[in-house]
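task queued by scheduler; priority normal; single chain, no ligands, no partner chains; default sampling; output format set to structure tokens
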Amino acid sequence: MKPQETVPTSLPGGVRASIADSLAAVDAELARRYPGDPGTRQPVHTVYVPADLLTATTVRDWGDQALAALDQHAPDADSFAAVLGLPGDLAEPVHTRVRAKLEREPVEDLRIDFEDGYGPRPDVEEDAAAARAASLLAAACAEGSAPPCAGIRMKCMEAAVRDRGIRTLDIFLTGLMAAGGLPDGLVLTLPKVTYAEQVTAMVRLCEEFEKARGLAPGRIGFEIQIETTQAILGSDGRATVARMIDAAEGRATGLHYGTFDYSASCGVGAAHQSMDHPVADHAKAVMQVAAAGTGVRLSDGSTNVLPVGPTERVHDAWRLHHRLVRRSLARAYYQGWDMHPGHLPTRYAAVYAFYREGLEAAAERLAAYVDRTAQGTGIADEPATAKALSGHLVRGLDCGALDGAEVERLTGLGRAELDALAGRAPAIP
């Protein structure tokens, strides 16, 4: 067909414009509700530490205790791989990287807990603890020893503890402002959310604090902890969690599954409360669908089986934790809770093995996609799959499972190109 020739059509010229006008509100609604992933690094875990146990060396102490556990119970790559059932080709790289991670950055996300892990205290005691938490976090940020993400879990919005939770949040944020401002990696967690109106109340708190301190609107975000059945299915038969995301007005950064509170609310006995129980899988599936496309991220819960005691018992706990983390990763829950330093070795082992064992296949498919051919792979990938493949590699790079040089060698792509394919913001050196 010559350039000047036109293809015949039948619809009147105004049809497209009319349809565009009729769908303008829908287009705006899609853009508002489903902006996509924020394009920033997501931590692989959240470490919860009761506020009264927080010290200036907590993060380093966790790393040192995790290294000591490895030294005592799996001192080399072969023994560690044997405990976890890692393939032989992954034994050395995983072990080496886990140790390096524990030395360099043992905690990716720290949550200073003023809720269940802290409990009810006299007001003067909790006031002091909140101020102290702000001071310690600000000092860690100033000296460069803070984890990439950190913040507090306040008490919930239920009547019995609401005022206390609000006061603790106010003291903590005020202390950070006095010490130089809110850190970039600040994360707040709102627990035991049952109604969307409780999320609306949290939004108002954030707005009022921003106004009081001259912060940009929307500066303060928060996670919503899913610990009650009403958060999944409301009395009206609707998925409450979707309404909660909407009620957050763009401030919700994550949905965190609360293993034990949620299981208990379903009547599950203590011996059977676990991240892989059917009630957990149902809740997390609803969370996943509700959050898809919204930019709100997901986190699995924790296990209460701690790797302590004799080596045999530690190994049993490690195997359980490793299996649960692997299971979460396979289900696109890329974050979870760790409640004990002894969980760090298996957290990172599971995460690193997950990304490393998929490295070559993902790299090959991504390179073929970029070359606009699938010859030799047997798979014709689409843009959405290429985004997932590059996202897999970027997550592996973020947490230390992969090296930039090896990824570039296998894909021919640098970090900036991977970020672009994954829809991510450029990585900060």
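post-processing summary
- The two ends are 50 Å apart (CA to CA).
- The longest strand covers residues 45-50.
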